[in-house]
Specification:
mainly alpha; about 5% strand; about 35% helix; two-stranded antiparallel sheet; single chain
Length: about 625
Amino acid sequence: MEKYILFIVAVYVLTACDSFLDQQPLDQPVTTGDIFKSRVNTEKYLFNCYSYIPDYWLLSAANGYPWSAASDESDASWPHDVHKMNDGSWNPNETPYGKWQNSYQGIRDINYFLKNVDLCSELSAEEIRQYKAEVRFVRALIYVNLIRMYGPVVILHDDLPALDEEHFIGRNTFEYCVDYVGDELTEIAGILYPVQNNTNLGRPTSGSALALRAVILNFAASPLFNTNASIYTQWKSNITGENLMPAAYSEQKWIDAAVAAKAVIDLNRYELYKAYDNYGNIDPYASLYGIHYQKWNQELIFGRHMTFGNIEAEARNFVYRITPKAFTGSWGGVSISQKQVDAFAMNNGKYPVTGYSDGSAEWNGKDGRIPIIDLSSGYSETGATNFFHPWDRETMPTFNMYVNREPRFYMSIVYDNLKWVYGSNLAKNIIIDYGNGGNCYEASGTNHPLTGYTPRKFTFRETDPSLGNSGFVFPLWPLIRLAEIYLDYTEALIEYDYQNPDVLKYWNELRKRAGAPDIETVYPGIENDRDMLRLMLRRERQVELFFENSRYFDIRRWKIAEATNNDCPVFGMNITVDDGAPDRIGDTDYWKRTPIYRGNRTFLLKHYLYPLHQNELDRNKVIEQSWGW
């Protein structure tokens, strides 16, 4: 079996104990024997390994994650390197949010732990076995994130490269990387505990391992990597000359992805979170709220609390950035796109916007200015209605675009002239006004949404930023939840066995929880139309997994980012004018679809994968740059 060692790890990563000591200082000599002499220090090192799990809620420009704002679901109003990705100005000398070096430092730290944890005599053999499986899960998660960004990467196995030697090597093939990660996850699934308890909350279980395997197999089966018309046919290993990417379509990959997802479902350890009303019926609003509010619920397969590792300041920053500026200290600069608003269905289950005037094959094409509207849906973009918000339980004059939408819309989007019902009594008197001169607008700054929309998801009713540090309730961030596995399984079935009854079974379970009619009820005959199933399943995923870092990778693995993110602006409401509330809602120019000022986005074929920074190429003369860069 090939064992590649990465040059950058060998030269530029400090010793494993150095990175450990930076975060977990010891008051004793720094040797391997000292670190692994006691249970306390060994477990400190274990938690250091956990620190490499991505903090996906970090939205800062310095070290955050750009996934939402670099997709078509949102934009960032403040100065942010994601704008270089969106306008196409990034290059190998400037690779915002590249995680290559940090990821391989994490892999080396984990390998160091695996090599030395047996030295700790204060741990039982079973504890050591579990700890090894846990860090192998974290290592697999790091590899999954690398593969999703860079495609084929370097697999280190359990190697600890000598730091005083130079190693010149290239990437493993994409299929080798996926197989390695899948095999690792299968093996540790037989070791990890099956369920969480009060002593291991937040740690991976056997189900977490199987679910992560299902996610990477679904990714690998997708059109970007699984096609007879690959754009990567000339991307070859500098060492062996073999193709780094698969050269032909394989239906078996979809079969394997479906089997992997179904294996998670068949564990019967996870269930969709559901809340019920006094009559025993599913309450979709309380259910959707509880997914993220009820910590460690049975839908969560693997997640992370936002304050893990004493990073509460960054967690507060996340809340500040998504909370409208009407609150003291809030910034409200996460700008949800009009296209994302359009994606949600009406309360009758019909999707009101079926496409745009550019005529793209994908419903979410380039031009958000002129939507193609299904008139039978009951949707309107003119006028206003005194509308009773079904979750906030307040009646307000509401632009008809936002009236009678599905429950996920109301639990996901904050729009203009919404009465805030969260936080203190003072907060509950605030009416959101994103227009020029309004309480959520900053004329001389960037702390307002450029589109007139901010996300409601991950905002809890007890949260009131105006109260300072005591006013925060932080969500638990889902890295994998059962809803995603349902969608992965359904997608895989559509690709190779689209009339399988399970296609509708799990899809409709999600829709029932969300208060939406069965998909075949809304669109009769869809069960016999694979193209329609694929199209609607992708929209379902866009709505269900909104703002959970899914969309960026979905539009890439489906190879549709050329339609969704190229030669097009982000649209929203016209925040440069007054909204006219309460008497002129729908009448002023605020209520017209308007491109934000940044201009058109640029997406080229090479942007499907992240580039390696030029420093990596200078350090290792044979490693392959990402295709097209």
